[in-house]
Amino acid sequence: MLTVFYQTLDMNIPKWQLDGSLIGSNPGLGFRPMPPVENVESTLIWYRASDENYKYWTNELDTFLESEWSPPS
Predict the structure, then answer these.
(1) Is Disulfide bond a UniProt keyword of this protein (predicted)?
(2) Where does residue 48 fall: left (phi above 0), alpha (psi -120 to 50 degrees), or beta otherwise?
(3) Given its phi and psi angles, is residue 72 left (phi above 0), alpha (psi -120 to 50 degrees) or beta?
(4) Is the distance from CB of 57 to CB of 47 less than 8 angstroms?
(5) d(CA 20, CA 47)
(6) Which tens digits make up the pLDDT trace of 15-61?
């Protein structure tokens, strides 16, 4: 059955592109943890090597993981 499917695919270009695809011509990308509110437009995560600078990111990551990886009850 998969043999028939693979015969419909071109190995050089995607079958569905831009507006013909499910994600369209303007796909988005989200990530967690979110940046601080005062810098919400930035998608660049950077920090200096000190406790104060990376503590925000580790706290945000811990908070996110608590909600995603909570033990089953």
Answers:
(1) no
(2) beta
(3) beta
(4) yes
(5) 40
(6) 888 888 888 887 776 777 777 777 766 666 666 777 777 888 888 88
